[in-house]
Amino acid sequence: MPLTPEEPQIHESAQGPRATAAAGRPASTPRPVPGPRSAASPRPGRPGPGPARPGPPAPRPQPAAAAQSPAPPENRSDQPSAPQFQLIPAPVDGALDAAEEALDLLLESGRAPGDVLVLTTGEQHPWAAHELSFGEAAYWAQQDSGEDVFFADAAAVERAATRPVVIVAVNGGSDEATARALPLAMTRAGALLVVCGDQERVAAILGAGV
After folding, report:
1. Phi and psi for 86 in degrees, rounded to 5?
2. pTM of the predicted model as reported, rounded to 2 decimal places
3. Residue of 144, 192, 146, 190 whose CA lies nearest to 168
4. What is the pLDDT of residues 7-18, one digit of tens each?
């Protein structure tokens, strides 16, 4: 008479799913996802769904005197911070090309065209020369509309409006004129000033003028 085992044995085929992948089929590796983008430069196009925002906290009971005359919040925007500065080394005959490459990168990163002002210290940008052929009134009206990138001569930087990003192409002009234009260009940049030109020359001019 065969001995009866104390516990029934379960056949291997009846067991649950394995923790490891079956032989010959390696487990798939999760693909990396891009990191979060800063709020200053959102990705163009339709954004994905974001995390749900928590509801507002329940108001705390306050004394009557505090409710009638609340203390004013601390204001830290009285002294705006200086714009960031970036120097892109480029020869005089390649400064305009470097400025256009910097412009393309800014637009591809999500910066709005109306946020950017491009200045040239030497020969005017072809767009500016073309638009000025229709008259200065129509030309400067495009700056006031703020709908697109605006190109201007650095000599007219005092007339240029403030924009978040200013790109300066040091593509010629005298050192004296450039020394006047670069500090003024910094005052027109709300967040970022990009200067494309000879590194030693730009450093000497900014060091003396700022």
Report:
1. -135, 130
2. 0.62
3. 192
4. 445 444 444 444
